[in-house]
Amino acid sequence: QNSMVLSAAIFITLIGLIIYLHFVKIDQESLLVIGSLGIQVTSSYASGKESTIFIEMGQVKDVVINEAIHMQKVIYYLCILLQDPEDPQGVSEVVPLFQSSKPRLDCLIEVYKSCQEILEQRKTTPQSN
């Protein structure tokens, strides 16, 4: 009886660990910005699984560093602001980046500057249809 309970507890723990590694534990996050195409956000999980989100450049209004207060602490994070299709001045959605890795502010500033350079090039380059 006790060995069955112990075996079941070990089995449930192992299943929980596998689920955690496959769906929750993000090992690496990356951001690829191509001015003529869009922004690709990739999350690599500890199990080897990858999740990729692609945002077309036409949807991107801006990239900003946002701040939030969490547990008596200020947290900075990078966000992509998506343009509202009905209101060109409005924002339809905010997509937070690097939520798992939580890089320091100085690292976020470097990524922000690079993104802004690419966004500025896109605005100054004439687009062909």
List the helices and strands and how they pair.
Layout: H1 2-23, E1 26-34, E2 38-45, E3 50-56, E4 60-69, E5 74-83, E6 91-96, H2 105-124
Antiparallel strand pairs: 1-2, 2-3, 4-5, 5-6
Structure description:
This protein has 129 residues and is α+β, with helices and mostly antiparallel strands. It has one domain (1-124). It is 33% helix and 39% strand. It has 2 helices and 6 strands; from the N terminus they run αββββββα. The strands form 2 sheets. Strands 1-2-3 form a 3-stranded antiparallel beta sheet. It has a 3-stranded antiparallel beta sheet with strand order 4-5-6, covered by helices on one side. The relative contact order is 0.14. The mean pLDDT is 88. Residues 30-99 form the Phosphatidylinositol N-acetylglucosaminyltransferase subunit H conserved domain. Keywords: Membrane, Transferase, Transmembrane, Transmembrane helix. The chain crosses the membrane at residues 6-24. Pathway: Glycolipid biosynthesis; glycosylphosphatidylinositol-anchor biosynthesis. One of its GO terms (biological process) is GPI anchor biosynthetic process.
